[in-house]
Specification:
With 156 residues, this protein is an all-alpha fold. The protein is built from six helices and no strands.
Length: 156
């Protein structure tokens, strides 16, 4: 029983870092600016984790980006200016929801193209299934003889 509790304690101890949340030591002194910075952080992609916002990421680069966002907000930049600053530096990909424009059409259309390609492949495969030709009289007689022989062996 004691071994069980030791094992549970060990597993829980190693799993605690998985529940860690990114915490910065120096939030902005103004709660309104801090809230604005936090909202912006939810929209910015962690370039290391890729599908995680910088608010949720513990990567060093995410920590640096959080500091940049806070710095820009503290300087009085609007959310649009902060986004523009980061996009100028890292490209549209830094935004979790990139804008629809000529340079991102492929990004937005690629899921639809993937579905179309998969549907075409499935439809083509269904059409390509050959149908069996009917047996000739000779083949039918041979099949009947084999079946009769097999049923005769099973009765023995």
């Amino acid at each position: 029983m004691i071994r069980f509790f030791k094992m549970v304690t060990l597993v829980c101890g190693f799993s605690l870092p998985a529940y860690a949340v990114a915490v910065d030591e120096k939030p902005l002194p103004d709660p309104v600016q801090e809230a604005q910075a936090r909202e912006l952080m939810k929209e910015i992609r962690c370039l290391v984790c890729q599908n995680q916002s910088i608010e949720d990421s513990n990567a060093e680069l995410a920590r640096d980006l959080r500091a940049i966002v806070r710095e820009r907000v503290a300087l009085g930049d609007s959310p649009d200016n902060v986004r523009a600053y980061l996009v100028d530096r890292y490209g549209d990909w830094v935004l979790l929801k990139p804008p629809v424009k000529s340079s991102t059409y492929f990004l937005w259309a690629s899921p639809f193209f993937a579905v179309l390609v998969i549907a075409a492949l499935v439809f083509r495969r269904r059409r390509a299934v050959p149908t069996a030709a009917p047996l000739s009289d000779e083949e039918q007689a041979e099949l009947q003889a084999l079946l009769a022989q097999r049923t005769g062996e099973e009765r023995s």
